[in-house]
Amino acid sequence: MKAVSSLVSIILILMIGISLVSSMYIFFSEMITTSTEAGTETAEHISSSLMAEMRIESATTAGIVTVKNTGKVELSNFNVFVNGALEATSSITIMPGSSDSIDLGIPMASGDIVKVTSSEGATAISSVP
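The chain above was modelled as a monomer; its predicted structure follows.
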């Protein structure tokens, strides 16, 4: 009978060891997968930001800002700031090489500083003539 309990204890120890190793494998493989996905998303965002460029072609006292996409990716979801204050948002999309206008709905004064940003990271600053 003494030999049977030694055999049972060895089997239990082996089962505990195998379950611990299995748990660690699952935990670390999920952690590596999550880290890899996060790294890939970050790299894609950075490369997109590097290819996103725009310039303000005109800003009028009537509150119309014309933006040209000078980068290699489409730009969308614009925020327009006048003298540092957010004055308008626009969900238009501008393809590379194209231009579009954003109507702020408010007049601007000569000398106002206009800053336009996109969700892709492009920024342009100009002043109203």
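The chain has two domains: 1-51, 52-127.
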